[in-house]
Design brief:
- The structure holds two protein chains of two kinds.
- Chain A is 66% helix and 4% strand.
- The radius of gyration of chain A is 27 Å and the shape is globular.
- Chain B is mostly helical.
- Classes of the chains: A mainly alpha, B mainly alpha.
- Chains A and B meet through helix 10, helix 11, helix 15, helix 16 and helix 17 of A and helix 1, helix 7, helix 8, helix 9 and helix 12 of B.
Chain lengths: 494, 327
């Protein structure tokens, strides 16, 4: 007997999904806290007053949306077979992003094809009029709607691209108006006046930069969306999968590694760092010894060793996962844990040094004299004053780990080969670049997406570092700094 | 001085013992010798006898940490942990897990030279190039050149080293045919195989290093002695090169020195991409073959070099900065 429930997909909470959503919850809580504390809000205001940081936060926010869409997983129910009592589910785990990009996922060719191509990259022998000829066959999906591709192809691309551009412009307009409206509401000013001030670049936070970035992204995304349905915008890879789809999926992998692995270092680094700095003496000696030992082992080797062991563990316990995707995900989760467990030495050393300085300050001494317990001093007086270091290191590590993932995947100790990642794409690209003619699009896509993501992360990290560590700000080239505008007009409200 | 070195040496030995314990725990406790044997002999249908034979050949047929069958000190010495540790500290690395790989010590000795011939020129050029570039930016600080210099630094460091390698190989080896794509030849012929990896590696690290050094120079520029030097009427060039550069050498030595261990281990990825038979390529091969004996040995060798470097850096400090007293 089948009920309505049987048509519902079975939701799957992967390990990294859970972690990502927990982090999002923590992020929301942090934002609420920042908005309540004028001091913190002012510092974050300084971050967004830095134009590159603001522009890159728009890019990062977009990547975050893609990541979140890709972090809701389910298994679709299979059509019921006669006499079936239990609902069977697809062995493939899909995400919301997969559902959105269903066209790209289903339009699978047989092998390589160039970006926007309508014929295959490789030639096949076909018998034409009794003669064997080497021709590139038409693609099954890419440009399949064209009746006479030779003459229709370019006009079709131009028409679709143009329409896409118009839609993109419209989307940019809507998004821009929404953002302006939000700013107007926050500053309690009429929409027109706010718009005028943004246009004349008179807002303390350079909102015009945010709007420009948003507009540019919309103008790129519009034609891309319009063309990626009937064509393969970035071509297909060896097994005929769409490269654009792979690149978008890789964003999540990069994001997960960048965030989870850094967050995983925090507990050990913070607790041990503060303990060592606060208690000094033998506690300090032991903790210093621990991180000296850990940092003495070359990082790649330590990670490689741990990942090999994770591999052995997964092979021994096949009961922990139902599908291949779950296995790959557990491996990614454990990889993040390994990166966290092996990477805490640097931050720990930094926090120890800072705590050593802080504990001599009057307010800490006074707290001690009032009989406040050690645990309370550390959590209430020391921790909030080293938290900015934690934040700076976290954002700096984010981009470093995304780059690291590519190297680890190359060495063979990165994410599972079945999981889309920039490292995996580059790894395959190595052979593709030595083909003749060159298969360059997979490599170029991985390059483009990865540089955009890492560059945005780096610029954002620089903004955060300059705002939270004023000493670092003097190292900026002066032309990068905006003249300080009048405070409390627009921007992040205290 | 001698006293200090002695204490550093003892501490280094302690750290090395810790590394040894850590790697042993990682490799033998989580992954027992039986598992290793099964992995190497292949498949699940391996008889217990063949496992025992494999273990006996490699000396893995004893208890891990404590041998309860023996008496006295033999309880500790007749174990895998003791035997492995002693042989590691004596730099006898034994044979690899897989049949074809042979003696590890021999391989390490052979490959060390190749790694060094890539890494040492790279290290020296790296420090020189980054310092020079940073000094140039500082000389024209807050100008258009400085601005775009910093921008290109950020751009350079946002690109994965793998991209430099793949694009570099494609451009210089395939299209322009200036250097061989990969391979190695001993002697002077090695230069033509080494030049591309050295240059690409240099480029891939330039952005991060130059930006860091620039910050160090700027920090020095804000100090009193610089004002004094300028007040004396010294030319800006002299101030920068004679005064600032010398004082900035301390943080530069620390920063560059932390990279030295990788110099010896060889850049894993570069060696493997360019087919250079160095230590880095050896490690990658071992990882892909899941040869735990090699990985374990390389962890030890890597840490040994790392610790040695740090002692070396401390000694170099006293040379670049007479104010530093070793105590």
């Amino acid at each position: 007997m089948s009920t309505d429930m049987s048509t519902w997909p079975k939701f799957v909470l992967l390990w990294t999904d859970g972690a990502i959503w927990l982090l999002v919850a923590a992020l929301v809580a942090y934002v609420v806290m920042v908005l309540r504390k004028p001091q913190l809000a002012a510092t974050w205001g300084r971050v967004f007053r830095d134009a590159p940081a603001l522009a890159s936060s728009v890019v990062l926010a977009l990547c975050l949306v893609v990541t979140l869409l890709d972090s809701v997983h389910y298994r679709a129910p299979l059509p019921a077979v006669a006499g079936q009592t239990k609902v069977a589910y697809d062995t493939r785990t899909s995400s919301l992003l997969d559902a959105l990009l269903g066209d790209l996922l289903d339009a699978r060719e047989t092998t390589y094809s160039r970006p926007l191509a309508y014929v295959s990259f490789t030639k096949e022998s076909v018998v034409v009029n009794g003669e064997v000829q080497r021709v590139a066959p038409r693609l099954q999906f890419g440009g399949a709607h064209l009746k006479d591709p030779a003459s229709q192809w370019l006009p079709d691309i131009a028409a679709r691209g143009g329409t896409g551009l118009l839609w993109g412009a419209l989307a940019a307009l809507v998004a821009g108006t929404l953002l302006t409206g939000a700013i107007a509401r926050a500053t309690r000013q009429p929409l027109g006046a706010t718009w005028g001030r943004i246009w004349r670049k008179q807002t303390p936070v350079p909102w015009h930069v945010a709007l420009q970035t948003l507009g540019l992204l919309c103008l790129v995304a519009g034609p891309a969306a319009a063309l990626s349905g009937p064509y393969h915008l970035l071509g297909t890879d060896l097994t005929g999968n769409d490269v654009l789809y792979q690149s978008l999926k890789s964003i999540r992998t990069a994001f997960v590694i960048g965030t989870l692995a850094t967050v995983a270092t925090l507990p050990l680094a913070v607790v041990l760092g503060i303990l060592a700095g606060y208690f000094r003496g033998w506690v300090d000696e032991v903790i210093q010894y621990l991180y000296t030992v850990l940092s003495s082992v070359p990082n790649v080797l330590l990670i490689a060793a741990c990942v090999l062991l994770v591999q052995v563990f997964l092979d021994k316990n096949p009961g922990l996962f139902e599908t291949g995707a779950e296995r790959a995900d557990l491996k990614l989760f454990l990889l993040c844990a390994v990166l966290g467990l092996t990477g805490w030495a640097g931050l720990c050393r930094l926090l120890r040094a800072e705590t050593l300085k802080l504990r001599e300050l009057d307010y800490v001494q006074a707290a001690g004299a009032f009989g406040v317990s050690d645990a309370r001093i550390m959590s209430r007086h020391i921790f909030p004053n080293v938290a900015h270091l934690m934040l700076i290191v976290t954002v700096l590590e984010f981009s470093a780990l995304i780059l690291y993932e590519a190297v680890l995947s190359y060495v063979g100790v990165g994410v599972d080969p079945s999981m889309n990642s920039f490292g995996g794409m580059i790894n395959l690209a190595r052979n593709e670049m030595s083909r003749d003619p060159v298969v360059w699009w997979s490599f170029a896509s991985a390059f483009g997406f990865m540089v955009a993501l890492v560059l945005a992360a780096n610029l954002f990290a620089d903004g955060v570092r300059d705002a939270f560590d004023p000493r670092a700000a003097i190292f900026r080239s002066r032309r990068l700094r905006r003249p300080v505008a009048a405070p409390n007009a627009g921007g992040v409200k205290p | 001085m001698l006293n200090y070195l002695l204490r550093r040496f003892v501490y280094a030995l302690l750290v090395l013992l810790g590394v040894n314990l850590l790697t042993f725990a990682l490799f033998f406790t989580l992954n027992t010798p039986d598992d290793m044997a099964r992995l190497n002999l292949g498949g699940k249908r391996v008889t217990q006898e063949s496992i025992e034979k494999w273990k006996a050949e490699r000396g893995y047929d004893k208890p891990l940490y404590i041998n309860r069958e023996e008496k006295g000190t033999a309880q500790i010495t007749e174990t895998i942990f003791w035997e492995r540790s002693v042989s590691l500290f004596a730099l006898e690395f034994g044979r690899a897990d897989s049949e074809s790989a042979g003696d590890i010590g021999h391989e390490v000795a052979q490959r060390m030279g190749v790694s060094l011939s890539l890494a040492l020129p790279l290290f020296v050029l790296q420090v020189i190039a980054s310092t020079a570039f940073a000094l140039l930016l500082v000389m024209f600080r807050h100008s258009r050149l400085d601005f775009w210099g910093v921008v290109s630094c950020v751009l350079l460091l946002s690109i994965s080293s793998l991209f430099y390698i793949i694009v570099g190989q494609f451009l210089f080896s395939r299209v322009l045919k200036l250097a061989p794509i990969s391979g190695y030849a001993p002697g002077l012929d090695a230069i033509k195989f080494l030049i591309l990896p050295v240059l690409l590696s240099l480029l891939s690290r330039l952005g991060g290093e130059a930006r860091l050094y620039r910050a160090m120079f700027l920090e020095e520029l804000g100090k009193d002695y610089v004002r004094t030097a300028r007040a004396k009427g010294l030319a800006e060039r002299v101030v920068l090169v004679k005064h600032v550069l010398r004082n900035a050498l301390i943080p530069i030595v620390t920063s560059a020195g932390s990279y030295l261990p990788y110099v010896f281990l060889g850049s894993l990825v570069f060696e493997s991409f360019f087919g250079l038979p160095g230590l880095g390529a050896y490690v990658i091969e071992a990882i892909s073959k899941q040869d735990f004996a090699i990985v374990r040995t390389m962890v030890f060798v890597g840490s040994l070099l790392y610790i040695a470097t740090y002692v070396l850096i401390d000694v170099v400090y006293t040379w670049v900065d007479p104010r530093v007293r070793l105590s």
